[in-house]
């Protein structure tokens, strides 16, 4: 029977979380908002509008949202040609695809940003499909991104594993009914990922690959 390996991208396969922190911080600063970097870090993984709402509150001037998102996109876009894949990312996806898993990405990225991330991973031959932010009405921690990934793979939740680096990932995967695996390379503590639903936690893709035979992918 077919099985699905669903992966978050930012902070899970590509080392971008701290770039997002810096560029969101600068976008907020330019708009006159003082948002601590540690707060931005914990919000990374949410879709842009949700991240802004999480950090500025529901009573903010929502008329600024589009400009804030555009500023972040422009600042972050300066790094597109040098985004670094995390250790073992490419080899992990290729190993799982070779073992018969259908590999699907579930990400808030889209367009040229998603293209840059895929170039960084350099494993298009192993990636069957991508569930992006534009494909769903609600982003993580809602289950829709993971559920859409399962639809693309044609696999039920009980035959899937979802790998991510944030509490938003773990909550989305848990709500979708899939087994969740956390990685620490996004910068969040193990305890936070486990509390949010991670069954197992590894250092990074290379650590998961090295322990694959004892992991939920076994």
TrEMBL record:
InterPro entries: HAD-like_hydrolase_sf, HAD-like_sf, HAD-SF_hydro_IA, HAD_sf, PGP-like_dom2. It comes from the Bacteria. GO terms for molecular function: hydrolase activity. SUPFAM superfamilies: HAD-like (SSF56784). The keyword Hydrolase applies. Coiled coil: none annotated. This is HAD family hydrolase. Keywords: Hydrolase. It comes from Streptomyces ardesiacus. Its EC number is 3.-.-.-.
């Amino acid at each position: 029977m077919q099985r699905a390996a669903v992966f978050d991208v930012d902070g899970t396969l590509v080392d971008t979380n701290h770039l997002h922190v810096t560029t969101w911080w600068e976008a907020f600063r330019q708009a006159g908002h003082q948002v601590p970097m540690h707060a931005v870090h914990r919000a990374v993984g949410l879709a842009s509008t949700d991240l802004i709402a999480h950090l500025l509150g529901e009573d903010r001037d929502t008329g600024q949202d589009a400009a804030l998102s555009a500023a972040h996109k422009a600042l972050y876009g300066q790094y597109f040609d040098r985004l670094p894949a995390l250790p073992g990312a490419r080899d992990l996806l290729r190993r799982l695809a070779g073992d018969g898993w259908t590999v699907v990405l579930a990400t808030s990225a889209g367009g040229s940003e998603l293209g840059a991330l895929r170039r960084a991973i350099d494993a298009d031959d192993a990636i069957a499909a991508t569930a992006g932010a534009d494909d769903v009405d609600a982003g993580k921690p809602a289950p829709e991104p993971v559920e859409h990934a399962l639809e693309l793979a044609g696999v039920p939740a009980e035959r899937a594993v979802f790998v991510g680096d944030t509490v938003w990932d773990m909550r989305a995967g848990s709500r979708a009914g899939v087994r969740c695996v956390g990685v620490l390379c996004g910068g969040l503590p193990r305890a936070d990922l486990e509390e949010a639903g991670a069954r197992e936690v590894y250092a990074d893709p290379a650590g998961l690959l090295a322990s694959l035979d004892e992991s939920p992918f076994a």
